[in-house]
Amino acid sequence: MKKRFKITTFLKAVMLLGIFGMYACNFSVSSGNATADNLKEVSQSKEKIRNGITVEDFGGLKVESAFLMLESGELVSDENTLKPDEKFKLVLKISGWKAENGKVQVGAMEQVHDASRPIPLEGEDLFAGSTGLSEEDAQIISLKMGIPEASAVYEVYQTDFKVWNKSAEQYVSGNYRFKIDKNK
Q1: What is the pTM (predicted TM-score) of this model?
Q2: Which residues of 59-77 are buried (b: 16+ CB within 10 A; e: fewer)?
Q3: Less crowded by CB within 10 Å, the N or C end of the chain?
């Protein structure tokens, strides 16, 4: 009887320690998709448009969240200071697309320049030749960027961007600034 009491007491102690151990742990569930995980984090925060990104939407489109993310999956800090050659992307969560036959004909362009010298936005459509995106896929648009070390000559860079619907009068445009720290 004493032996059974000791085993029962031991098992209860182990279970109790396990429960306390679980409370002490910080559980974090990751989907394995950094963009999806960051979208969830940003969507649940108070600041849904980060990194000094300015946006203008038109034609029923609405930017639900916008942020900068490193290629490694980490969010870019609010200082927007990056290393030379460090690749990052602008992630936009956009709702309100008007689709035709279940597809959205998305167009997009971005242009980087010296922040002290504004220039008109012009360039190639990054989605040229695309057969369109599903309404679900069009909700998340990512535009990649990076400044090679040899080209890192300005103190502050500005990226202007525009994402539009080729089949309807809808667009989102905006900009953000960032710095390249050669000492990082």
Answers
A1: 0.78
A2: eebebbbbbbbbeeeebbe
A3: N
Q: So what's the pLDDT on residue 13?
A: 40
DSSP states along 59-72: TT-EEEEEEEEETT
Taking alpha carbons only, the member of 58, 59, 64, 66 closest to residue 92 is: 66
* Of 111, 79, 91, 4, nearest in space to 39 by CA: 91
* Residue 174, token pair as written in the block: 């905006």
Strand extents, DSSP E, the chain: 54-58, 62-70, 81-82, 88-95, 103-104, 106-114, 133-134, 140-145, 157-165, 170-180
| pLDDT for the residue 22 | 35
**pLDDT score of 34 more than 50:** yes
| Own/partner pairs, 41-44, CB within 8 angstroms, 24+ separation | 41/75, 42/67, 42/75, 43/93
d(CA 127, CA 130) in angstroms, rounded, equals 5
Percentage of residues in the chain with pLDDT exceeding 90? 57
Neighbours of 97 (CB within 10 A): 22
